[in-house]
Amino acid sequence: MRIVRRRWLLLVLVVALAVISLLLPPRARTLDEAGAIGAPVRGTIHVHTRRSDGSGTIDDVASAAARAGLRFVVFSDHGDATRTPQPPAYRHGVLCIDAIEIATFAGHVLAIGLDGAAPYPLGGEPRDVIDDVARLGGMAVAAHPTSSKPALRWQDWSSRFDGLEWLNADSEWRDERPLTLLGALLTYPFRRAETLTSLLDRPGDVLARWDQLLRTRHVVGLAGADAHASLVNGEDNPYSDRSPIALPAYEQSFRTFSVSLPNALLSGDAAADARSVVRELRGGRLYTSIDGLAHPARFSIIARSGAHQAGAGDQLPLSGPVTIDVRTNAPAGARIVLIRNGQVVTTEDAPTLTFTGEQASGYYRAEVYLRAATAERSIPWIVSNPIYVGDPPHEGPPFRPAAESIRYRGAMPDTARRRDDGVPDSDEWQGWGIELHEKSKGVLDVVPGNGQTRLLLQYVLGGTKGDSPYVALGMPAGPDVQAFDHLAFKGRADRPMRIWVQFWRPVPTGNEYWRRSVYLDPVERDIVIPFAEMLPSAPGTARAAPLSTIVSIMFVVDSVHTPLGAKGQLWIGDIRYQR
Ligand SMILES: [Zn+2]
Ligand SMILES: [Zn+2]
Question: What is the rounded distance in angstroms from the CA atom of residue 99 to the CA atom of residue 104?
Answer without folding.
Answer: 16
